[in-house]
């Protein structure tokens, strides 16, 4: 195309614009208020239930666009730099800079390179109207006319300051950055109001060449500074440092990052909303985080670095606090421990006994034998033990649950069967990943994996009289709250019986003492749990208003050292419950329909029984005044022709997951023939000790051959396997 043709086309374009050619007249441009209202930041600010900011989160990953800033909140240096760089006669022209147009036309005529004649107003018209926007290959003559037409409309209806404000908020900068706020927060880590002259010159230079090299940006920025009679000293270093920034930190308060990810998962993020009110309570969230952090610092020497806290409102299911990790204390702070699935240990026992109460198989007064038991499973013999390795004989269900005795829980689980128990646990929303037969008898002791979110909400169902509803993330006023989907996970009567036991400080005195950390001033029902090899420690409980769940452990799966239920998660739980009910004591629930109180006595002639006469609670129809102690469980019969009584030949010992490794001892027992020299135990060719008395042995993982020898004579031998013990912790 010849130079005359280029000039002719340019003159034709501007002539069409001057005549107001109807073909290029677009609909009226929006007002500044409308543009502001439609501005959609890429970051959503989450508010707590009272409107206090608690978290910012990225919801649009295609661009980085921050909240709108008013022109008076942009530094004077930036306002000056953008005018000098993009449109020096901005305050004088009426949308089109005819002097620049003539200069551009003449430069094209003589084939000289020059910058375009588009003014700030024309560029804004292109940003507001896609038909006037600049395509990748440059604008054609009709688009240039449309842009000029739009500039005339804007100048007629908007103030100059409004045009400059909108331009600074909408203009694309480098990469994904759109608008001045996103640029300054990313490149300079400051608000637009804080830009100095050199920073403003760099920002202005990026408008002309968003992807230009550091050298080109520095040169253009220096030109802007020289127009202001300013020095360019140090500009190259500043530009290099700014352009090397990769991304920008989230703005504002960052209190609930894990909650934000969970709450926004699957939630539509369209629309122009820049904030969203959540169910969280900033005060409770801050308390939960502070208490967890402080306690984990104290537990650091016991090889504990991770933790999580969840607080739910009983009535609504609102999430009031969600602390997913210990933050800087852990190398796995990105892992949300509220959602991670782990073995819950003894915290499943209340749900187990609740189902047994509902089915009228047990009552809180029923007696279970806390004595050694070996249960055959598909994987071998299951040999549950209690946490302290002691057996207490006949105990009531109240004593068994209150003191978290394992053997009675396994016996209660056997009454239900693992498949039924698994189905009922899923009624509580635990979402077990396998049928009950996969877990076997160990399901009663928490061998399945659940999340803190699901477990805490299951306890909330107990607090709500057995009715399960999902938790809620978004705040709703009571008048606008729609009823949540719900179902009955447990009868109200059975839930009350469980609650009454978990709130009975005397019932857990054998294991925890009367003055344990679980003892609260007001009403609270609470249970602790510890998983296999001390890898997870839990404390979950509820008051009249709140359900609180706490987990401590290691996201890596590494075992803790000497951490029990009352020293791990329980102190955080107790401190948070005290804070939640400061000035408003928790009140016990009322006796529901279908529950009766009955004075009871135990008859145990000639046999020890540490169960006091008392008033007990029962599901209606199961109460009785006198309870007779049954016969003690008989010892395992001696196998014909065998001298070794324990362990059994071919046994696979599935040791209890709720016992510290140092307490995982198996008692080797034998019935010796009369006469002769003393007999000894030999394991894998090594002598262990005398067989005259049961010998406690600390199990080591692997396959073993155990022999009972008298001198060189082998009286008996068995082979067995040990699974689940920790060699490092045991040593």
How would you describe what is shown here?
The termini are far apart. The protein is built from 23 helices and 27 strands. Residues 19-26, 630-639, 656-661 and 725-731 have low confidence and may be disordered. Helix 1 packs parallel to helix 6 (141-157), helix 3 (76-86) runs parallel beside helix 9 (197-208) and helix 14 (349-358) crosses helix 16. It is an alpha+beta fold and 731 residues long.
Global Rg: 37 Å
Head-to-tail CA distance between termini? 88 Å
> Strand sequence of the main sheet, in spatial order?
8-9-21-27-26-23-24
**3D shape:** elongated
Strand content: 15-25%
Strand tally, please?
27
Task: Report the structural category.
Answer: alpha+beta
Largest sheet report: 7 strands, mixed
How much helix, percentage-wise, in residues? 25-40%
Q: What kind of assembly state do the chains in view correspond to? A: single chain
Global mean pLDDT: 84
Number of helices: 23
Which stretches are poorly predicted, pLDDT < 50 over at least 5 residues? Answer: 19-26, 630-639, 656-661, 725-731
Can you tag this structure with a few keywords?
single chain; disordered C terminus
What's this model, at a glance?
The protein is α+β, with helices and mostly antiparallel strands and 731 residues long. Helix content is 32%, strand content 18%. Helix 1 (3-18) runs parallel beside helix 6 and helix 5 (120-128) crosses helix 7 (160-170).
Question: SSE layout and pairings?
Answer:
Blueprint: H1 3-18, H2 32-38, E1 43-47, E2 53-58, H3 76-86, H4 98-109, H5 120-128, H6 141-157, H7 160-170, H8 180-187, H9 197-208, H10 214-227, H11 235-243, H12 257-264, E3 275-277, H13 282-298, E4 306-313, E5 319-323, E6 341-342, H14 349-358, E7 367-370, E8 375-377, E9 380-383, E10 393-396, H15 397-402, H16 406-416, H17 418-427, H18 436-439, E11 450-451, H19 452-463, E12 467-468, E13 487-488, H20 492-502, H21 509-512, E14 525-530, E15 536-542, E16 546-553, H22 570-580, E17 595-603, E18 614-619, E19 626-628, E20 644-646, E21 652-655, E22 666-670, E23 680-683, E24 686-690, E25 695-697, E26 702-710, E27 713-723, H23 727-730
Parallel strand pairs: 1-3, 9-21, 17-19, 21-27
Antiparallel strand pairs: 1-2, 4-5, 4-16, 6-11, 7-10, 8-9, 12-13, 14-15, 15-16, 17-18, 20-22, 22-25, 23-24, 23-26, 26-27
């Amino acid at each position: 195309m010849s130079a005359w043709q280029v000039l002719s086309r340019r003159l034709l374009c501007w002539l069409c614009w001057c005549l107001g050619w109807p073909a290029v007249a677009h609909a009226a441009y929006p007002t500044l208020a409308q543009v502001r209202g439609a501005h959609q930041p890429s970051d959503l600010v989450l508010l707590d239930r009272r409107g206090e900011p608690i978290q910012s989160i990225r919801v649009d990953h295609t661009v980085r666009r921050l909240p709108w800033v008013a022109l008076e909140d942009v530094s004077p240096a930036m306002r000056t730099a953008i005018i000098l760089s993009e449109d020096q006669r901005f305050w004088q022209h009426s949308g089109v800079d005819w002097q620049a147009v003539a200069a551009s036309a003449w430069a094209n005529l003589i084939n000289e390179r020059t910058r375009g004649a588009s003014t700030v107003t024309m560029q804004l018209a292109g940003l507001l109207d896609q038909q006037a926007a600049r395509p990748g290959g440059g604008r054609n003559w009709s688009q240039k006319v449309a842009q000029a037409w739009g500039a005339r409309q804007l100048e007629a209806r908007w103030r100059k300051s409004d045009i400059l404000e909108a331009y600074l908020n909408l203009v694309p900068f480098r990469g994904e950055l759109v608008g001045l706020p996103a640029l300054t927060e990313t490149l300079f880590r400051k608000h637009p109001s804080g830009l100095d002259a050199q920073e403003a010159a760099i920002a202005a230079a990026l408008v002309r060449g968003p992807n230009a090299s550091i050298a080109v940006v520095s040169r253009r920025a220096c030109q802007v500074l020289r127009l202001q009679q300013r020095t360019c000293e140090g500009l190259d270093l500043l530009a290099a440092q700014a352009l090397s920034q990769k991304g920008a930190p989230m703005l504002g308060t960052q209190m609930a990052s894990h909650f934000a990810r969970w709450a926004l998962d699957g939630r539509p993020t369209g629309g122009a909303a820049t904030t969203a009110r959540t169910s969280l309570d900033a005060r409770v969230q801050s308390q939960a985080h502070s208490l967890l952090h402080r306690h984990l610092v104290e537990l650091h020497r016991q090889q504990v670095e991770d933790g999580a806290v969840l607080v739910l409102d009983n009535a609504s299911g609102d999430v009031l606090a969600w602390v997913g990790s210990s933050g800087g204390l852990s190398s796995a702070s990105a892992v949300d421990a509220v959602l991670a699935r782990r073995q819950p240990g003894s915290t499943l026992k209340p749900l187990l006994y609740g189902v047994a109460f509902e089915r009228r198989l047990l009552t809180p007064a029923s007696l279970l034998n806390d004595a050694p038991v070996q249960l055959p499973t598909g994987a071998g013999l299951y040999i549950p033990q209690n946490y302290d390795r002691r057996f207490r004989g006949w105990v009531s269900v109240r004593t068994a649950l209150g003191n978290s005795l394992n053997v009675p829980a396994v016996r209660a689980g056997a009454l239900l069967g693992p498949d039924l128990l698994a189905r009922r646990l899923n009624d509580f929303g635990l979402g077990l990943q396998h049928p009950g037969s996969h877990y076997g008898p160990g399901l009663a002791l928490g061998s399945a994996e659940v999340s803190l979110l699901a477990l805490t909400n299951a306890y909330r169902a107990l607090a709500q009289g057995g009715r399960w509803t999902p938790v809620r993330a978004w705040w709703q006023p009571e008048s606008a709250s729609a009823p949540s989907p719900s179902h009955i996970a447990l009868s109200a009567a059975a839930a009350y019986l469980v609650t009454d036991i978990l709130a009975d400080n005397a019932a857990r005195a054998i294991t925890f003492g009367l003055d344990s950390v679980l003892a609260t001033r007001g009403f609270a029902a609470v249970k602790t749990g510890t998983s296999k090899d001390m890898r997870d420690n839990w404390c979950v409980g509820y008051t009249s208003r709140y359900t609180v769940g706490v987990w401590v452990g290691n996201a890596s799966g590494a075992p803790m050292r000497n951490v029990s239920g009352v020293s791990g998660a329980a102190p955080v739980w107790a401190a948070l419950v005290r804070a939640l009910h400061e000035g408003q004591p928790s009140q016990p629930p009322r006796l529901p329909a279908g529950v009766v109180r009955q004075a009871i006595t135990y008859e145990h002639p000639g046999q020890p029984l540490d169960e006091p006469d008392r008033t007990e609670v029962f599901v209606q129809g199961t109460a009785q005044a006198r309870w007779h102690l049954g016969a003690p469980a008989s010892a395992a019969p001696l196998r014909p022709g065998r001298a070794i009584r324990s362990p059994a030949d071919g046994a696979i010992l599935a040791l209890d997951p709720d016992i510290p490794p140092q307490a995982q001892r198996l008692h080797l027992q034998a019935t010796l023939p009369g006469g002769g020299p003393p007999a000894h135990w030999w394991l894998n060719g090594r002598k262990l000790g005398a067989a005259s008395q049961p010998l406690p042995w600390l199990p080591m993982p692997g396959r073993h051959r155990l022999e009972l020898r008298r001198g060189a004579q082998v009286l008996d031998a068995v082979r067995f396997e040990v699974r689940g013990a920790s060699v490092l912790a045991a040593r």
